[in-house]
């Protein structure tokens, strides 16, 4: 490797057999990373053929904390990313010399300058022949629902939210994803922040009474809404606030109007993000009825509650775009990131061999 960054992270490589390949056969590997505001996941996959109807093989999976540089800072984000890659390789019994490609999909990658900084950093960790792909985490989420093919739209709604779309000819567009300060109100953070605000407004006499007051205080083991101020600003991390979403849903299911209105507003926000992307890319076709995949990712959209936010979002979008085809991914976004790299390598291989055949 070019440089021994934080050598202790990679000390395990000295204990591996010569070659350090996965499965003992010296085969080449792909690292796929999905880095969000709540956690970061890295999977290690071999470069071998598999059928689309079956999940691709995964040698190892590692989990770490937040890697969004906008949330924790660039130094902490890089340390998290490097640690999770090293752990995945350690679990698979491989060294960096076995890696053929790395696809890193991280929230907070919003501009070519973000991509270039990470590419430069990756080139200091891995050998010069390793292929690197750096994308926003929404791209990996889309790929997780389309098995690595970039076409359609993805809606992520977890701690944060973003809608991201691709056309078959490579055009792309996004909506939301700018963080809570800039209005990602359909996100888990946005829902929970509105709930906390509603409790304070009710306590002040500026808003209606709400079941959210008792439920949130009970959840946080607080005795008065006054204590919410200290609780909130003691650690205003996005994920910590977003953990209150299940409380909001429970109150809405119990008939609380304030909680219900918060969720309805979130549905409209999430649906409007998808609609904006679909309009800009023309995914719906000229008549507005063309079919396109809508990949749904994130715990806010999980269909496990009576008040089903994901279903409401789909119903809202389908009124305008009847060709919407909802997809619940069978693999996680980290695998989607690996599949992006896998598809690129396969296409590269086929292109090189077709040129050889032609010659």
TrEMBL record:
<dbReference type="GO" id="GO:0047931">
    <property type="term" value="F:glucosamine kinase activity"/>
</dbReference>
<dbReference type="InterPro" id="IPR002731">
    <property type="entry name" value="ATPase_BadF"/>
</dbReference>
<dbReference type="Pfam" id="PF01869">
    <property type="entry name" value="BcrAD_BadFG"/>
</dbReference>
<keyword id="KW-0808">Transferase</keyword>
<protein>
    <recommendedName>
        <fullName>N-acetyl-D-glucosamine kinase</fullName>
        <ecNumber>2.7.1.59</ecNumber>
    </recommendedName>
</protein>
<comment type="similarity">
    <text>Belongs to the eukaryotic-type N-acetylglucosamine kinase family.</text>
</comment>
<dbReference type="GO" id="GO:0045127">
    <property type="term" value="F:N-acetylglucosamine kinase activity"/>
</dbReference>
<dbReference type="InterPro" id="IPR052519">
    <property type="entry name" value="Euk-type_GlcNAc_Kinase"/>
</dbReference>
<feature type="domain" description="ATPase BadF/BadG/BcrA/BcrD type">
    <location>
        <begin position="31"/>
        <end position="341"/>
    </location>
</feature>
<dbReference type="InterPro" id="IPR043129">
    <property type="entry name" value="ATPase_NBD"/>
</dbReference>
């Amino acid at each position: 490797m070019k440089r021994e960054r934080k050598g202790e992270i990679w000390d395990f490589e000295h204990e591996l057999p010569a070659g350090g390949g996965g499965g003992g056969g010296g085969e080449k590997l792909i690292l796929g990373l999905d880095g969000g505001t709540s956690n970061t996941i890295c999977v290690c996959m071999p470069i071998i053929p598999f059928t689309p109807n079956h999940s691709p093989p995964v040698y190892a999976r590692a989990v770490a904390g937040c890697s969004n540089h906008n949330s924790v800072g660039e130094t902490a984000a890089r340390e998290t990313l490097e640690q999770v890659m090293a752990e995945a390789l350690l679990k698979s019994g491989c060294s960096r010399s076995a890696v053929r490609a790395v696809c890193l999909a991280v929230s907070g990658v919003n501009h070519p300058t973000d991509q270039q900084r990470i590419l430069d950093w990756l080139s200091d960790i891995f050998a010069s022949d390793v292929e690197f792909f750096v994308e926003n985490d929404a791209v990996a989420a889309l790929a997780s629902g389309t098995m690595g093919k970039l076409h359609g739209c993805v809606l992520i709604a977890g701690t944060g939210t973003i809608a991201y779309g691709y056309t078959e000819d490579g055009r792309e567009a996004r909506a939301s994803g700018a963080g809570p300060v800039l209005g990602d109100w359909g996100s888990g953070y946005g829902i929970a922040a509105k709930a906390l605000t509603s409790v304070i407004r009710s306590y002040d006499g500026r808003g209606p009474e709400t079941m959210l007051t008792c439920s949130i205080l009970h959840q946080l083991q607080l005795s008065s809404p006054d204590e919410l101020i200290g609780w909130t600003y003691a650690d205003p991390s996005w994920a910590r606030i977003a953990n209150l979403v299940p409380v909001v849903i429970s109150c809405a299911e119990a008939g609380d109007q304030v909680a219900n209105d918060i969720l309805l507003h979130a549905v409209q926000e999430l649906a409007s993000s998808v609609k904006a992307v679909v309009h800009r890319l023309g995914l719906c076709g000229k008549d507005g009825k063309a079919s396109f995949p809508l990949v749904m990712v994130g715990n806010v959209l999980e269909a496990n509650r009576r008040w089903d936010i994901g279903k409401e979002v789909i119903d809202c979008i389908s009124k305008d775009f009847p060709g919407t085809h909802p997809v619940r991914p069978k693999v996680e976004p980290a695998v989607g990131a690996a599949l992006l790299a896998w598809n690129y390598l396969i296409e590269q291989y086929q292109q090189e061999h077709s040129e050889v055949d032609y010659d």
